[in-house]
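Deliverable D4.2, example record:
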Amino acid sequence: MRFLSAALTVSVAALATFGSPLAAQQRPFTFMDVQELKRAGSWTPSPDGAWMLYTVTTPDWDAAESQTDIHLVSLSEGVSSSRQLTYTDDRNETSPAWAADGSFFVFSSNRDGEENQLYMMRHDGGEARKVTDAGEGVSGFAFSPDGQWLVYRSGESDREQLYRLPAGDLVGGEPEQLTDGEAGIDQWDFSPDGSRIYFARPDSFDEDEVKRREQGFTVDVRNAVTPLSSLWSVDVAAATERRETSDASYSVNSFTLSDDGRWIGITGGSPERYERNITAQRLYADLYLKEIATGEIERLTDNYEIGEGGMSFSPDGRWVAFSAPDDLDRYSMTENRVYIREVDDRGGAFRKLGADFDQSSSVGFWSDDSETIYFNAGVTVTTQLHALDVESGEVRQLTEERAALSVSRDDDTGTILIGYSDPKTPPTVFTAASVDDVADRSAWTQLVDVNPQIRDIALGEEVEVNWRSSDGKMVGGVLVYPVGYEEGTRYPLIVAIHGGPASADVLRFNGGYNAQVYAGAGYAVLKPNYRGSRNYGNAHRTDIVGDYFTMGYEDIITGVDHLIAEGIVDGDRMGALGWSAGGHWSNWILTQTDRFKAISSGAGTMNWISMYAQSDVQRNRQFYVGDGFLYEDFDTYFDQSPLKYITNAVTPTMIHVVEGDPRVPSPQSVELHMALKKLDVPTELFMYPGRSHGIPDPRNRLVKAVSEMSWMDYYVRGIGEKFEWRQVLETLEGEDGPVVVSDPER
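Output generated by the structure prediction step:
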């Protein structure tokens, strides 16, 4: 049994603030509950639509790892029919795929070593049988649509090739190599009839690049020159390759095949080295359409700094569509629209659909008759399914759930899957007989319930809240009431500021940086969808352009004032926190007001001037600040930087950042920490190992959460002792019990 400190459970002092006792069978939500949530995914319906394979990932806190198994559920009977198929304590079974006749499935596992191999298994019983014994393991596989072959990718890093096995003799058959290029295979996909595989592959392989790293010359070259990629195909039966593109003016980033096998949609990226990093490559790409029969390639778009989505073909083969900003002439942050054209109308113009819809539209999936495009889009504090009429261009909202909804259709079987989460329901999935039934909640069948323990936990009520900002415009967000809330009692407040900023907080489970843990500890939590957020229309999202912080700050502060006026919040006990853009606004709040007793800044900017060069993102930051070129207009950037106003700071501020964060680099946090130290403002800087924008490992994510709440407890509520390492050490149990026994009187 775990014995957790007050920072991981609810302190005695915090319990004393609850207005009413918790139900006898329930307890507050804790950070350890968050760590122990299971995750389900890899939804894989059977060819006959009767069953669905899926994976369940179970965290192992003591080992700082997680383990994944495969489960099965009846699509008609739902959760009650679910059962586990694979059992390994410290190995993983992932990526299930059905054979064409549904008699068995294949999955990837490291159960017999460090490398992933393929195994086959019947869903109605029996042991798994090993299929591959590839020296470098298997890094992807698929059955051919005609059911004849199982093809997998294997090989040394960046040199992986494709291999085939006869689907009728997976265990006894000998693998045969299909491709033999110098460089490895990237994206690959079967033609609809299964006779060919199309794949993208770099045009060359740099042996010296590998050797220099092996010999210890491990310097990283920023925006290093890398080879372009081309599109190829291979005949699966004959194992003969054919080059499909050979144009040095673009690099094949990705591709899509039409269902009728006549067309390939290609996203071609820029060949320029400084336009090819992870955040720039989409801006500087264009779309191309190849007719397979003739080999002719048509360039569909020719613009600069416009990010188009990948192409989608209608089921009847008539239409090609893609999503892109409303303004295709210049860089902007306008909402996305769907652009459509008849596929064989070579040189024809694309028609814009959904122009009157004040959110972004996209191509999710098509109706069988190709007359409707379905997509998910945010609506204030929810996400809903929408339908886009191809003929009229009109958009209809189909669902009205007070939840985060994500509806999709399985490409192979047509099964409708409904991803779902609400404030009391962790992420799960439902199915419905058809897309027409999605609007009728009673027609849903729940398929997964991997966290039933949540029903024994007391959760704070979450509601949509709206208020008028200082300029008269309405703003909204999510309010989480403290567990045991009593009307007339004022509670301490945490303002949890989402990142993006082009994102939104919605009515989903435990959003807002573990808001339900704060609710369980007696806090109210406001998650404001300030100016710059999605889900409230294009004007709301772009109102901050040219003056990044002002209106977003006003929206947050007026939201706080609204809760104080409503008698919910104690204005003398408030804290603010956020990550990424939420960290940006936390830093701005620090320099603009002393109303908050504590702030936690996660991966936030201090100085837009230095951030411009340090970060892997330039273009959107330039646009947000006013679209002037930094090196000709330093004043505009500095005027909108928290650093310019840092001498106003008085609020105790904790700072969190990943040391190698490429998006909001850690020197931004170092600048903040140094300034606060020199200004004698209480501060701590926690710098986490890694090279990602978020904290990559669960142990350190717990450190961040626990230390952050301890900071709030100490400065906002005057309880606790700030953060101490024993608060996280005691979560680890040795043979004789916890490493540290908590002090119940803390």
